[in-house]
């Protein structure tokens, strides 16, 4: 009887523990405010209490576990509150917004990217935004970054900062950016057109804010010497064959079209053209003069390509692939170790309590009611909170206290992914007519009918657009496309009805929460439906209007309502994706593609950072040079076939940020990238400009593409292993992919890491307990 009363009292406490869901609390939760801990917890049964600072410290450690964060920060009440606020969802969202604003400033700064074209021949009129407003916006972001980094330093401590490379880099970049920003605003103003280094350093702010991105950079830097050595081997190979070409194909004054006179006239030209041949961009042009003279001359180029591309380039690929091979697995192992350490630390803190006599004591167990109090105050997913609370309720049936093993096993529920265990309470159907209709709408055959209609709709749109006879009579067009247009219009009405019936059969919440694909399907269906209804109301027919055809004939760019319907209609082809996972091997490939885009943010973010900085560097080096070059070209009236001028590459340049991105993209594709090298060398009258494009080519082909290859191979192997174990293939994050390969850290390893904490002596087992002051 006494046991039941204890359980009932604890259950009552657990039910009443969560804060009331008032409008104020709902607003704080929506904005991401951390939950408050205002008072100590008193346990009358054990004649002891837990101070508010102890509960706060345990809560912060538990939140560190949720976010895979390190616990080596200060543990006084002031710094715990600051650290908790800095880790709150609201501050993280504000920081992300500031990062986006800071990076997007490159589009608005002079010269801005807002013009109809980037072609220097048209002398585009740019929208120039006020200099003072842009400087104020940038100043706000820099001030935020300053507050962010100095707060982080205050919470971690000066001594610990010395071991954190990225925080030091972040601090240096912030200080330099503020100094340059102040000089620009006060002294130089908008008349200054020199180099602005702070714009090149902006990606540092983004890299520091992403743990995975920092680890990707660390994986790259750890193998930098090996990568440089392998690339140097390729350059030595090119230099050797360039010297050999100078001997084998000497320059001839009598034959200006000979191999030595056209491609290998100097060592510089020989090295550059063989480097381009290494990318196959000028093959077979570079060998034609020599091959036309003597057929065996082709062996020189064939041997060069075989050694350079099929041997040395594969060595470079293997080196970079090895550098990132297993990167995700090692990263996840380290993240899980941090989570286990934080969970253990929170329990060690809760073991300390204050007796009614004022003495501090430490026990091996903690009341479950105290754990529930900490859980209610911690910021975490509602799904995790619910399941952990249910687990604690089950443990209370056995004992009112919890030990370390039970606490650790309970907190392992944080590892579960809510997306893999959706709480969809689908109603069980009966035998009446209404339930039978719902069963039909839930069946796979109903979904199959919609997919067949989607394929037919896409097919009709394709035929209607591709066979549109714009140069014939309009009545012929109506007679040709009217049946398909009417059928397609009926399909659009059916798709909207299909979504309504599925939402009715499964329940609106269950249907839209079951898959992101359902939300996409509903969005496309109702968008097409609304656009089609508007078109029918305006024109009275589903056929394309004559006005649109007249605009097309005059080659005037127009995106009409009819074109919007057809573009939206083509999106129904995504429903074919549902048939791809039918085979296990195809599911592995599809899962690899999805997870590479979903979880490759660290790799792609790192590549984007370099892309961004390199585009800004191109603006600083080559901004405006093509305008002067075009003026000189018009005066000379000399056109050489196959050059930058003859191919009319004038829209490519570095006059603004958008143009820089497109130009580097065109060079990245390595199709005629040597044309850009020659063009900008002639524009600047300097051979040094070639290094900019050569370095970009070497980075993209040797590091960028191979990093993506390593990412794809790593995910594919993990998928293959999950398929062999009959586990789910398409999951939402990398932790679920590698879950089966992760070994739990030993208790000794966790204890060893806890004992290294700079501000808490977890080894202390005296009556005074752990000092949190």
TrEMBL record:
UniProt-annotated location(s): Membrane
Keywords, alphabetical: Membrane, Transmembrane, Transmembrane helix
GO molecular function: intracellularly phosphatidylinositol-3,5-bisphosphate-gated monatomic cation channel activity; ligand-gated sodium channel activity; voltage-gated channel activity
Entry's transmembrane regions: 131-153, 165-188, 224-249, 298-321, 445-465, 477-497, 518-538, 558-577, 597-617, 691-712
Keyword Membrane carried by entry: yes
Keyword Transmembrane helix: yes
One GO term (biological process): endocytosis involved in viral entry into host cell
Cellular compartments per GO CC: lysosomal membrane
Its membrane topology: Multi-pass membrane protein
Pfam families: Ion_trans
Protein name according to UniProt: Ion transport domain-containing protein
Species lineage: Eukaryota, Metazoa, Spiralia, Gnathifera, Rotifera
């Amino acid at each position: 009887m006494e046991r039941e009363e204890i359980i009932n009292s604890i259950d009552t406490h657990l039910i009443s523990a969560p804060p009331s869901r008032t409008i104020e609390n709902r607003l704080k939760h929506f904005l991401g405010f951390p939950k408050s801990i205002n008072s100590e917890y008193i346990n009358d049964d054990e004649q002891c209490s837990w101070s508010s600072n102890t509960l706060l410290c345990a809560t912060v450690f538990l939140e560190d576990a949720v976010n895979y964060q390190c616990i080596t920060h200060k543990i006084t009440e002031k710094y715990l509150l600051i650290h908790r606020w800095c880790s709150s969802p609201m501050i993280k969202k504000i920081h992300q917004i500031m990062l986006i604003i800071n990076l997007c400033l490159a589009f608005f700064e002079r010269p801005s990217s807002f013009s109809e074209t980037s072609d220097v021949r048209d002398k585009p009129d740019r929208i120039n935004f006020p200099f003072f407003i842009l400087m104020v916006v940038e100043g706000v972001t820099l001030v935020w970054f300053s507050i962010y980094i100095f707060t982080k330093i205050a919470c971690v401590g000066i001594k610990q900062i010395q071991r954190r490379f990225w925080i030091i880099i972040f601090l240096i970049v912030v200080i330099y950016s503020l100094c340059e920003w102040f000089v620009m605003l006060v002294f130089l103003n908008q008349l200054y057109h020199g180099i602005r280094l702070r714009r090149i350093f902006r990606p540092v702010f983004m890299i520091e804010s992403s743990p995975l991105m920092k680890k990707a950079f660390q994986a790259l830097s750890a193998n930098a010497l090996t990568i440089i050595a392998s690339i140097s081997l390729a350059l030595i190979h090119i230099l050797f064959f360039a010297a050999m070409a100078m001997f084998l194909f000497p320059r001839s004054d009598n034959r200006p079209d000979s191999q030595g006179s056209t491609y290998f006239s100097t060592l510089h030209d020989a090295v550059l053209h063989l480097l381009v041949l290494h990318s196959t961009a000028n093959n077979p042009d570079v060998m034609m003069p020599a091959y036309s003279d003597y057929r065996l001359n082709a062996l020189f180029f064939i041997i060069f390509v075989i050694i350079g591309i099929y041997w040395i380039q594969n060595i470079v690929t293997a080196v970079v692939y090895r550098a990132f091979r297993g990167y995700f697995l090692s990263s996840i192992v380290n993240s899980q170790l941090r989570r286990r350490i934080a969970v253990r630390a929170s329990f060690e803190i809760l073991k300390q309590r204050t007796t009614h006599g004022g003495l501090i004591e430490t026990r091996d167990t903690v009341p479950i009611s105290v754990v529930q109090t900490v859980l209610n105050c911690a910021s975490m997913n509602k799904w995790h909170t619910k399941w952990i609370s249910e687990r604690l309720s089950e443990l209370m049936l056995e004992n009112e206290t919890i030990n370390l093993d039970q606490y650790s096993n309970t907190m392992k529920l944080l590892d579960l992914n809510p997306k893999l265990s959706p709480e969809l309470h689908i109603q069980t159907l009966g035998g009446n007519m209404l339930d039978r209709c719902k069963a039909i709408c839930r069946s796979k055959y109903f979904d199959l009918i919609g997919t067949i209609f989607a394929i037919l709709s896409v097919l009709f749109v394709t035929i209607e657009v591709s066979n549109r006879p714009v140069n014939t009579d309009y009545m012929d067009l109506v007679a040709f496309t009217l049946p398909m247009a009417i059928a397609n219009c009926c399909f659009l009405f059916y798709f909207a009805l299909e979504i309504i019936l599925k939402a009715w059969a499964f329940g609106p919440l269950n249907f839209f929460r079951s898959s992101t694909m359902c939300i996409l399907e509903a969005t496309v269906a109702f968008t097409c439906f609304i656009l089609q209804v508007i078109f029918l109301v305006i024109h009275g027919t589903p056929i394309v209007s004559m006005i649109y055809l007249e605009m097309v004939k005059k080659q005037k760019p127009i995106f009409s309502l009819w074109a919007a319907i057809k573009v939206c209609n083509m999106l129904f082809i995504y429903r074919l994706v549902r048939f791809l996972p039918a085979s296990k091997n195809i599911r592995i490939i599809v899962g690899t593609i999805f997870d590479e885009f979903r979880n490759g943010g660290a790799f792609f973010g790192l590549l984007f950072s370099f892309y961004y900085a390199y585009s800004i560097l191109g603006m600083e080096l080559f901004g405006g040079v093509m305008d002067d070059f075009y003026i000189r070209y018009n005066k000379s009236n000399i056109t050489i076939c196959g050059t930058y001028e003859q191919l009319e590459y004038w829209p490519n340049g570095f006059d603004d940020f958008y143009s820089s991105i497109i130009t580097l993209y065109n060079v990245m594709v390595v199709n005629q990238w040597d044309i850009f090298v020659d063009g900008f060398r002639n524009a600047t009258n300097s051979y040094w400009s070639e290094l900019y494009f050569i370095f970009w080519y070497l980075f993209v082909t040797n590091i960028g593409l191979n990093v993506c290859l390593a990412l794809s191979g790593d995910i594919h192997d993990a998928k293959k292993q999950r398929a062999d174990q009959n586990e789910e293939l398409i999951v939402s994050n990398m932790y679920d992919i590698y879950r089966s390969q992760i070994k739990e850290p030993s208790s000794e390893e966790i204890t060893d890491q806890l004992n290294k904490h700079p501000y808490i002596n977890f080894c202390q087992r005296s009556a005074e307990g752990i000092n949190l002051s």
